[in-house]
Amino acid sequence: MITVMGATGQVGRQITQRLLEAGEQVRAIGRNPRALAALAAAGAETWAGDAADAEFLARAFRGADAVHTLLPYDPTSADFRAEQQRLGEAIVAAVQGAGVRRVVALSSIGADVPTGTGFIASLHDQEQRLRRLTGVDLLFLRPGVFFESITAAADTARTLGVNADAVAPEVPVPMIATQDVGAAAAAALVARDWRGVQVRELHGPCDLTYTEATSILGAAIDLPGLQYVRLPDAEMADALVQAGFSRDCAELHVEMGRALSDGTITPLAARTPETISPTRFEAIVGDLVQDRAA
Ligand SMILES: NC(=O)c1ccc[n+]([C@@H]2O[C@H](COP(=O)([O-])OP(=O)(O)OC[C@H]3O[C@@H](n4cnc5c(N)ncnc54)[C@H](OP(=O)(O)O)[C@@H]3O)[C@@H](O)[C@H]2O)c1
Prior knowledge:
Low-confidence stretches: none
Bound molecules: NADP nicotinamide-adenine-dinucleotide phosphate
CATH topology of the domain at 2-144 and 177-203: Rossmann fold
Protein name: NAD(P)H-binding protein
């Protein structure tokens, strides 16, 4: 049996579906019972509860041959790093309490860097926390920016006529489809063949600049020639606060943009067939925009 945290999310849904298709028994966890119902219908055992509750998590992890963990992202959090620390400690306590022997942890490119990377620094902290466990085989998956993070800008781009963010326009950035992240995680959870601590970066078929990604998005939303604009940091942070981010999360988003722009966040290793995934942004951008609208 495999326990999947974040099972109703972008990556977790893919993992759950692929594990079920592979004939694995899956315990799917998330907070929203209605969202979990679709996974129950597909054959998963579903548990609704909050990851901040280490006892709930430990019960959900107990008996699992392997677990998938993630640090859920809440852009309204007033103190993001403290919140992530609380969730991260609950996960580590649950892995320990349940005696889990194998963990696939969703992390990110840039998690090797301790500070100055915005949201990603919390994933660095979580990798360190998990590494302190003994007797647990750990696989850290470090994907690039999700294509879904680009398509999330579709509505704003329609309103403003441009796509604005904090990343330099011409810097190639590793980007990937969450379906490919889910496929990589599910394959590892089925194979359960790694030992000790392993780090696997996950790249899409090619890096994209924000200018290139914006052009692909524009073509999909009937705005051909859509331009990308890098806003000054303070202006970008204010725009995010207006859009509902907490001030802390807005500052972290901007810091992450700076770190992607100046090479602080960068792949550690050369691409290999194992780290490159097949899905091109052009191939799925239309579906992602439609899914989001639905
Ligand atoms: N976005 C990117 O470009 C990017 C790039 C690299 C890595 N990442 C990593 O990927 C993670 C996001 O993965 P994703 O896109 O699959 O997430 P997602 O779509 O936002 O889904 C989050 C999942 O976690 C569950 N969840 C949220 N808060 C929870 C809580 N307190 N307790 C229990 N379950 C909770 C959600 O369900 P409920 O809300 O029902 O609980 C949902 O199943 C990020 O946090 C980051 O660490 C992201």
